[in-house]
Amino acid sequence: MTEQPEKYFEWCLVANVVSEQPFGENHEIQHGTNHFSPNTKVYCSAPTWGDGYEQIVFVDRHRGSSKLVTMVSMRND
């Protein structure tokens, strides 16, 4: 009989990508983001670098693909 791996759960923030947002100097309307479609729920891991979510690691399905992606997003205030 094979040994089953122990299940691991971790709490994370879940964010919803906005449908429309102003983008750029001309405030053109952008639908979703470059990587995620509008209304996609993205899973945000805990702060990794101790910077208070200045850089966030997201995990979810990429726009136009069924594959999961992991990427880092930087806040640009």
Describe this structure in words.
The chain has 77 residues and is mainly beta. It has one domain (13-74). It contains no helices and six strands. Strands 1-4-5-6 form a four-stranded antiparallel β-sheet, with no helix packed on it. It has a two-stranded antiparallel ribbon with strand order 2-3. It is globular, with a radius of gyration of 16 Å. The protein starts with 12 loop residues before the first strand and ends with a strand. The mean pLDDT is 79.
Ordered list of secondary-structure elements with their pairings:
Blueprint: E1 13-16, E2 20-23, E3 28-31, E4 41-44, E5 55-61, E6 68-74
Antiparallel strand pairs: 1-4, 2-3, 4-5, 5-6
Sheet having the most strands: 4 strands, antiparallel
Strands of the widest sheet, in order across it, are 1-4-5-6
How many individual domains? 1
The count of DSSP E runs of length 2 or more, i.e. the number of strands, is: 6
Please provide the ordered H/E string of secondary-structure elements.
EEEEEE
Shape: globular
| Whole-angstrom Rg | 16 Å
Distance between the termini: 55 Å
What's a quick, concise take on this entry?
The protein is mainly beta and 77 residues long. It has strands at residues 13-16, 20-23, 28-31, 41-44, 55-61, 68-74.
Notable features of this structure?
77 residues; mainly beta; two-stranded antiparallel sheet; 6 strands; globular
